[in-house]
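Please fill in the sequence for the structure shown.

STRUCTURE ENCODING:
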């Protein structure tokens, strides 16, 4: 009698473990990056001394560590922000090439402006540590320079972390709404929050109220809720199953009719 000598090799742990799909990796990475963009919230407290009176800060004594940590957190926010657009681009471009590029461009501008604002803060620290207290240092001149640098930070912050999110959320909201990658209430919040924040930015620009007023904080709340909740959703749930995600990544062997056609 012939015996069956064929044996089935046992599955290795790595082969039996389900691998994360490329689309899930994208959604998870974007979600984590969105959550990271909120690490600069403590700057409200860390920058209090320099914002209250930049002149007194540059001429005063004490540690500048708090401001330095705050500046570092803003650099992290800028890098994480542009990361959200770059990582999402391969998926977003299949919905709309224009919106995908617009999202990347808006994030890039936002990050560049954040870096400019951080340089202003670090320059104030340099004035305090290396110039103030020297023999030829004029206190009045140092105070004026500190106030000028702080004004530069304030206006750059308005353009970077307040105005540019309007464009970012409109581009991203369009992609999410057209693709149904997430529940529809996410892009709806973006479509409500972005115009509200734009109106608030214009009001701040013309001096109707301050950037740290309760009205300004209320106007920025929907955008903050959209971005934070979207990040958490993408970490926990990922993208919804759609034709866009089922056949991702597309291959050259796919039939043309199965590909998602990018809209302008």
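FILLED IN BY: designer on duty
SEQUENCE:
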């Amino acid at each position: 009698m012939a015996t069956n000598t064929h044996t089935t090799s046992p599955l290795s742990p790595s082969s039996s473990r389900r691998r994360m799909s490329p689309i899930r990796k994208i959604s998870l990475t974007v979600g984590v990056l969105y959550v990271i963009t909120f690490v600069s919230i403590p700057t409200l407290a860390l920058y209090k001394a320099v914002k209250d009176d930049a002149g007194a800060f540059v001429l005063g004594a004490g540690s500048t560590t708090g401001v330095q940590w705050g500046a570092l957190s803003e650099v992290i926010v800028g890098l994480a922000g542009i990361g959200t657009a770059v990582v999402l681009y391969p998926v977003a471009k299949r919905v709309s090439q224009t919106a995908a590029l617009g999202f990347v461009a808006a994030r890039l501008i936002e990050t560049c402006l954040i870096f400019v604002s951080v340089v202003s803060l670090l320059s104030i620290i340099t004035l305090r540590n290396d110039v103030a207290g020297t023999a030829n240092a004029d206190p009045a001149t140092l105070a004026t320079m500190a106030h000028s640098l702080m004004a530069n930070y304030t206006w750059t912050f308005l353009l970077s972390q307040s105005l540019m999110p309007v464009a970012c959320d409109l581009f991203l909201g369009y992609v999410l709404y057209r693709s149904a990658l997430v529940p529809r209430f996410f892009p709806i919040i973006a479509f409500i929050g972005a115009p509200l924040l734009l109106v608030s930015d214009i009001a701040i620009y013309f001096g109707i109220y301050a950037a740290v007023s309760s009205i300004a904080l209320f106007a920025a709340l929907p955008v903050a809720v959209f971005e934070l909740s979207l990040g958490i959703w993408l970490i926990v749930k990922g993208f919804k199953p759609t034709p866009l995600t089922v056949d991702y990544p597309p291959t050259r062997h796919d039939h043309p009719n199965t590909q998602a056609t990018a809209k302008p």
